[in-house]
Design a protein that fits this description.
36% strand; five-stranded antiparallel beta sheet; elongated; alpha+beta
């Protein structure tokens, strides 16, 4: 890879530490038929203002059986944990806990970007994706025999999974340095 860049983000404490300002919860043991709308509706029943709900999926689109829900305030997230943990959703007892990955980079999503101009740098790639969200890392793949020569593709790691989905929606087919880029989830880089 030619180069990587990481934006500095404020530290949020050690892994697993409870955070007084964490508005996100992790929901596990979801039935594989639960949609994001089902999840959002169920989490609203706890009385909070749900601002985002996502059922995590495999590369082929199948549910992983878990999801992330964001609330308007940390107090609403804590109330949801108290009132909705061990409740029934589509015949399964779900568990709800604080999203330990929120803001720590663990809830990131990696994207593959194809059809790049051979002149595209990591910085230009990163700037293109900043239009939809926070970019943790951008890389342009290079030839093993000559690290200064691009392979015409790269990877971008977005800070939030929802930003990655938005990047696919808005940037797939967009123009970067005279080329229409292809954007999809990267199943090799991992998230």
């Amino acid at each position: 890879f030619v180069r990587e860049d990481r934006e500095s983000r404020p530290a949020t404490g050690f892994p697993g530490a409870a955070s007084a300002n964490n508005c996100a919860v992790y929901v596990g043991n979801l039935h594989f038929d639960v949609s994001w709308q089902d999840l959002k509706d169920h989490m609203r029943s706890g009385g909070g203002n749900v601002t985002f709900a996502e059922v995590l999926t495999e590369a082929d689109g199948r549910s992983k059986g878990c999801g992330v829900v964001e609330f308007g305030t940390a107090a609403e997230a804590q109330a949801a944990i108290q009132s909705l943990n061990d409740t029934d959703l589509k015949g399964r007892m779900i568990f709800v806990r604080e999203d330990r990955e929120a803001g720590k980079g663990g809830a990131t999503a990696a994207l593959y970007v194809g059809n790049l101009s051979y002149e595209t740098t990591w910085k230009e790639l990163k700037d293109h994706f900043r239009t939809v969200g926070v970019v943790d890392r951008a890389e342009v793949a290079s030839q093993p025999s000559d690290p200064t020569k691009s392979k015409g593709w790269g990877t971008v790691r977005m800070a939030r999974a929802r930003d990655a989905q938005e990047a696919i929606r808005r940037l797939n087919g967009s123009e970067l340095m005279g080329r229409q880029v292809q954007v999809r989830m990267d199943n090799k880089m991992g998230a």
